[in-house]
Write a structure and sequence with these properties.
Elements lengths: L12 H39 L4 H4 L14 H9 L2 H32 L5 H10 L5 H14 L7 H9 L2 H12 L3 H9 L4 H12 L1 H16 L3 H6 L8 H6 L9 H11 L1 H20 L5
Length: about 290
Amino acid sequence: MKTAADNPVLNPGPVKQKKRGRIRISQILLHVTLVIGSIVMAGPFIWMALSSLKSFEQIFAVPPVWIPDPFVWSNFTDSLQAMPFGRAYFNSFYISTIVVVSQVLTCSMAAYAFAKLKFPGSKVLFIAFLATMMVPMQVTLIPLYIIMDNIGWVNTHLSIIVPNALFNAFGVFLLRQFMMGIPKEMEEAAVMDGANPLYIYAKIMLPLIKPALAAFAIFSFIGIWNNFIQPLVFLSDTTLFTVPLLLATFKGLYVTNWPLMMAGATISVVPVLIVYFFAQRQIIEGIALTGVKG
């Protein structure tokens, strides 16, 4: 004869314990997977940082040597002296700053138009706008070069700044989706008070989408800072080179000075790491709050 202790309905203790055990096992497996994934993702960066402190012989040692012995700290100073990295840092910084500010302005204005202003063909135009994200940049590189050559912008920073500053479909999509989640009542109340679309955009929309603006600005800065293909095609003067393009000059026809290249690459990622470290909360918040409405 079964007792109450044998009935899982009357005595749910064993069932709960089994569920808790399964949850703990699944959590352990999840954390183990995340740890392994993080190690795999961080592996190349760790190898780059360690290789920047090795001698030329240690980099090609077999079996591979992970910990440098001794630490060659002079690789960093030698890499900075071998190439005009100071000028390249200035070029990358001011180009990235101008492009980020311009993209935040233009993309937020376009996103407001697509999200809140109703005009004929807005949905079709927005779909066509998003379709450009599927076109690889390499496809438009030759036509863009011809345009830049005709207006005399080849071998100038304008060929990198202007095209990137005026167009970013991802930014428009990101900010538009965020604006779609803002209640219409706020806009209608402002219209009742006599506000025009420009006032609503500047005084209501922009303050409310600060998390999305911060996330997009960080993504834009990282993308422009790491941009390599456009400077490679449009720039030929060494004084105009950006950091990624200047790093490529360490690679010679027959011999590549890998320690200096790794040291320069490690230095080049410092600004990106600083930006991400101080703004990771805005990145997470901006992406988490951006909806998929519309």
